[in-house]
């Protein structure tokens, strides 16, 4: 009679991919609530659209690639869909949302081999795809002080085109406004006297960013994510903007404006921290975060788009394997060799 | 007496569950009917039986002798009759049966003749080594390396620090803690003996900072000559290289031995066994074993080697309901066994019973880097896994696969529940296999060529007329010998150079 053995360890700390994803989802809730309160129910419709389309695509692709359907339960595709939906304007037509998330799941995730194998952050790849194809539709944001109601949103999202009085409801986002005004040679003090700006960032946006910051901090303290990437992203962005702000504060906005505008906090804590597409070493993650911070700043300041998070993340994704490779610490006992 | 401690990378504070078994005195496990003694309970070459079926043996009598230098003898753990010499299930990861000697106990438990050495301080270290080897002492901490080999290394090289390892970092295991509390004087005296044998400049006994009772017990006995050090309880602080780093700040080079940085390390139980061997001439025939986890009465037992695991379990109120698994060793590095008939050996420190829960299915690696964060060797387990899984074992090797100490932390934290250690072991065995094969092919080729050359020489020799035994012939012979000596010297130098290059 032979004896059989199974491999140690016989203990586990209990973390699961599903658990991690659930925590990320939970940490999005404060941001979601503020978003709802400020911009109305559009975000809910976008989330629902994105999540259902994503689940459908994932299920189809799992079947096609012959992987077990249990992979659906890992929740990663839901997080991808939520992050994607949060990047969109709540006015985005339904078919653009569906197209974008389908691209994300099919091309950015599964054509690379599925969970764990993708080179690019799927949510951001999907977002950039539709941003390049339909730039106009993605830059209409609800005007400050106007909260469209549910039926408005339904009409706008599903009517196929932006017709019924959307112009009255929408305007440029603060980042967009800032960019066009600066291009028109306006000065900062003059620009920020516009009612779309609040105390430190865009009105509303600063609260939304604070809510994402709170969610992000909870992720940090619950050890769902590590500090390296968010700290480095925010540090990179802050450092760059501080330099230019000091050099000329009339044409460069204050560093805090950058931190509390657009998708900064969502990007720093939720998007850039996607482990699959980030480097795996501590130093590597810092470099990766700083790179994202710098690129975001460069795009916001000199680029053709008001916010640059998606591009910055995709660019940094390309460097992630290289960064991992060159920042791998020496193995114990190999130092002297 | 306060030593500056250092840290090792990675590691994790684990829930210890030591309270389950550490408060009660170790109980003597009853003499079983039959004892099964594997010929190999140490790392190295198995022992060679010196008894035959039917022989009567006394407790402590040698029943198998050491077979070479890296080998140890096996002693009868009780008196009785040899009833079989053959293959039985043993605690070994391969799961295969191995040669064992089976003794039917006569119930008298009668000691054979043993010779004490007394006065260790006047004994030549060489002799001490012999005693330690003859008493069959291997590392009792887990790996089971013959103790005399490590001591010999220490005799041959300058030893800065002797570390006696009482850091039981794995959860549940308390056998060393119990031993320290119950036999502190053995541990301390054994430490002095080993310290004397290797002529160590410093002697350190290391325990964890969450073992106050052990600290108390030892603190009363250590003098100026032994430092008692408590290290922070963090897994795997008791690992050989990790503990050396914590205590001395030195890193053992990859692929190197502690002696390369002037350290000799032994387990506390080994020290106690050395004391018994030297002062009483007692070979190692029993050990402390922790029985813990899902049993009615978790505790420590003092068990004769060769006692079946199931006897110890029965003693602690374990009934197999089919939903438990038996683990030999700790929960992090121990191995699961399915056959409770296997015997307790020199390296069995713990029997752990766990509820059997089917492992959740492994998901793909999400590259979260948690494994790399906790790895005490600073490996990148996700990278190793990547190569091991795709069958690229050589690549895994170049990512320092063989530096992995199999502590299990990476798999412990992996959110995808990937059995990383299993992959690493498999990859290691694959690399070893390939190397063996390559070496094997080379070996048979040289053997073949050598055989041909020998045959050729023989023919030539036969053809040549015998030289007259003149002074000229003698001179020829001498020069031939000299040349041979020079050649072998050269070869040795080359070898040494090779080895130096290897380091
Ligand atoms: S912990 Fe598991 S999932 Fe995370 S990087 Fe390591 S192997 Fe991959
Ligand atoms: S098992 Fe090996 S790779 Fe995993 S943490 Fe331990 S030493 Fe590192």
How far the N terminus sits from the C terminus of chain A, by CA atoms, comes to 47 Å
Strand portion of chain B: 15-25%
CATH architecture of the largest domain in chain B: 3-Layer(aba) Sandwich
CATH class of the largest domain in chain B: Alpha Beta
Helix content of chain A: 55-70%
N-to-C span of chain B: 35 Å
- Average residue-wise pLDDT of chain B: 86
Which chain pair has the greatest contact?
Answer: A-B, 45 and 67 residues
**Spatial order of the strands forming the largest sheet of chain A:** 1-2
Shape of chain B: globular
> Into which percentage range does the β-strand content of chain A fall?
under 5%
Gyration radius of chain B, to the nearest Å?
Answer: 26 Å
Number of domains of chain B: 2
Query: Helical region count of chain B?
Result: 14
Shape label of chain A? globular
Bound molecules: iron/sulfur cluster
Helix content, binned percent of chain B? 25-40%
Describe the structure in your own words:
The complex is a heterodimer of chains A (337) and B (503). Chain A has 17 helices and 2 strands. Chain A has helices at residues 17-27, 29-39, 42-65, 76-87, 94-109, 122-133, 135-138, 150-158, 166-169, 174-183, 188-191, 205-221, 228-247, 255-259, 264-271, 282-302, 309-327; strands at residues 141-142, 170-171. Chain A has a two-stranded antiparallel ribbon with strand order 1-2. With 503 residues, chain B is α/β, with parallel strands linked by helices. Chain B folds into 2 domains: 18-291, NADH-ubiquinone oxidoreductase 51kDa subunit (Rossmann fold), CATH 3.40.50; 368-483, no CATH class. In chain B, the strands form 4 sheets. A 6-stranded mixed beta sheet of chain B has the order 1-14-13-17-15-16, with helices on both faces. Chain B has a 4-stranded antiparallel beta sheet with strand order 2-8-7-4, with no helix packed on it. A 4-stranded parallel beta sheet of chain B has the order 11-10-9-12, with helices on both faces. Chain B is globular. Residues 498-503 of chain B have low confidence and may be disordered. At the A-B interface, helix 1 of A face strand 16, helix 9, helix 12 and helix 13 of B. One iron/sulfur cluster binds at residues 374-377, 379, 381, 404-410, 420-421 of chain B. One iron/sulfur cluster (SF4) is lined by residues 374-377, 379, 381, 404-410, 420-421 of chain B.
């Amino acid at each position: 009679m032979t004896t059989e053995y199974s491999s140690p360890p016989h203990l586990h700390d209990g973390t699961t991919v599903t658990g991690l994803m659930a925590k990320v989802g939970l940490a999005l809730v404060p941001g979601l609530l503020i978003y709802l309160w400020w911009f109305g129910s559009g975000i809910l419709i976008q989330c629902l659209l994105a999540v259902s389309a994503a689940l459908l695509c994932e299920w189809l692709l799992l079947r096609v690639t012959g992987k077990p359907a249990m992979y659906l339960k890992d929740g990663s595709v839901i997080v991808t869909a939520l992050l994607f939906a949060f990047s969109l304007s709540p006015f985005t037509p339904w078919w653009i949302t569906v197209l974008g998330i389908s691209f994300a799941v099919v091309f950015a995730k599964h054509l690379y081999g599925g969970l764990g194998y993708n080179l690019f952050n799927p949510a951001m790849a999907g977002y950039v795809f539709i941003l390049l194809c339909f730039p106009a539709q993605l830059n209409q944001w609800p005007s400050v002080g106007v909260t469209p109601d549910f039926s408005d949103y339904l009409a706008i999202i599903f009517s196929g085109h932006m017709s019924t009085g959307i112009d009255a409801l929408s305007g440029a986002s603060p980042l967009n406004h800032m960019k066009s005004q600066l291009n028109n040679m306006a000065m900062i003090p003059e620009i920020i006297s516009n009612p779309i700006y609040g105390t430190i960032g865009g009105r509303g946006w600063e609260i939304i960013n604070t809510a994402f910051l709170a969610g992000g901090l909870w992720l940090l303290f619950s050890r769902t994510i590590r500090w390296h990437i968010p700290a480095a992203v925010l540090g990179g962005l802050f450092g760059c903007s501080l330099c230019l702000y000091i050099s000329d504060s009339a044409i460069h906005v204050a560093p805090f404006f950058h931190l509390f505008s657009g998708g900064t906090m969502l990007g720093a804590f939720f998007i850039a921290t996607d482990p699959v597409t980030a480097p795996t070493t501590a130093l590597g993650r810092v470099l990766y975060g700083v790179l994202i911070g710098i690129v975001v700043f460069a795009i916001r300041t000199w680029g053709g788009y008001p916010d640059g998070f998606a591009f910055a993340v995709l660019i940094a994704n390309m460097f992630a394997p290289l960064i991992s490779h060159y920042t791998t610490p020496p193995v114990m006992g190999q130092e002297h060799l | 007496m306060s030593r500056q401690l250092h840290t090792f990378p990675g590691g994790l504070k684990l829930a210890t569950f030591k309270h389950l078994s550490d408060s009660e005195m170790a109980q003597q496990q009853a003499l079983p009917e039959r004892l099964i003694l594997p010929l190999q309970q140490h790392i190295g070459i198995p022992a060679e039986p010196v008894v035959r079926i039917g022989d009567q043996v006394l407790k402590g009598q040698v029943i198998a002798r050491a077979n070479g230098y890296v080998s140890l003898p096996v002693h009868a753990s009780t008196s009785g009759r040899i009833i079989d010499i053959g293959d039985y299930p043993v605690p070994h990861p391969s799961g295969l049966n191995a040669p064992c000697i089976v003794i039917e106990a006569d119930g008298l438990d009668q000691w054979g003749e043993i010779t004490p050495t007394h006065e260790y301080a006047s004994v030549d270290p060489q002799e001490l080594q012999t005693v330690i080897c003859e008493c069959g002492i291997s590392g009792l901490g887990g790996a089971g390396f013959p103790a005399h080999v490590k001591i010999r290394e220490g005799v041959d090289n300058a030893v800065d620090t002797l570390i006696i390892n009482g850091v039981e970092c794995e959860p549940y295991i308390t056998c060393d803690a119990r031993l320290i509390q119950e036999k502190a004087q053995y541990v301390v005296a054994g430490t002095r003996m080993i310290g004397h044998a290797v002529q160590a400049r410093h002697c350190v006994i290391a325990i964890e900072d969450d073992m106050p009772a052990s600290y108390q017990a030892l603190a009363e006995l250590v003098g100026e000559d032994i430092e008692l050090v408590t290290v922070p309880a963090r897994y795997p602080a008791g690992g050989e290289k990790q503990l050396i780093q914590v205590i001395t700040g030195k890193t053992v080079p990859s692929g190197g031995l502690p002696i390369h940085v002037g350290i000799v390390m032994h387990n506390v139980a080994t020290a106690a066994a050395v004391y018994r061997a030297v002062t009483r001439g007692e070979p190692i025939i029993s050990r402390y074993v922790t029985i813990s986890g899902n049993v009615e009465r978790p505790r420590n037992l003092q068990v004769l080697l060769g006692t079946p695991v199931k006897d110890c379990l029965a003693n602690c109120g374990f009934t197999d309901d089919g939903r438990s698994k038996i683990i030999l060793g700790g929960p992090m590095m121990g191995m699961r066994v399915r056959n409770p008939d296997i015997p307790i050996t020199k390296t069995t420190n713990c029997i752990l019973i766990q509820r059997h829960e089917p492992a959740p299915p492994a998901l793909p690696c999400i590259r979260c880097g948690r494994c790399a964060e906790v790895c005490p060797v600073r490996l990148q387990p996700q990278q190793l896994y990547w190569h091991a899984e795709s069958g690229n074992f050589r690549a895994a090797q170049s990512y320092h696969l063989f530096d992995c100490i199999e502590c299990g932390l990476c798999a412990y934290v992996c959110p995808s529940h990937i059995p990383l250690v299993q992959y690493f072991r498999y990859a290691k065995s694959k690399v070893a296999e390939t190397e063996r094969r390559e070496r094997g092919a080379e070996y048979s080729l040289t053997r073949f060529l050598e055989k041909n050359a020998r045959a050729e020489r023989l023919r030539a020799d036969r053809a040549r007329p015998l030289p007259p035994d003149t002074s000229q012939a003698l001179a020829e012979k001498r020069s031939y010998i000299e040349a041979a000596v020079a050649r072998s010297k050269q070869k040795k130098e080359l070898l040494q150079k090779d080895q130096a290059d290897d380091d």
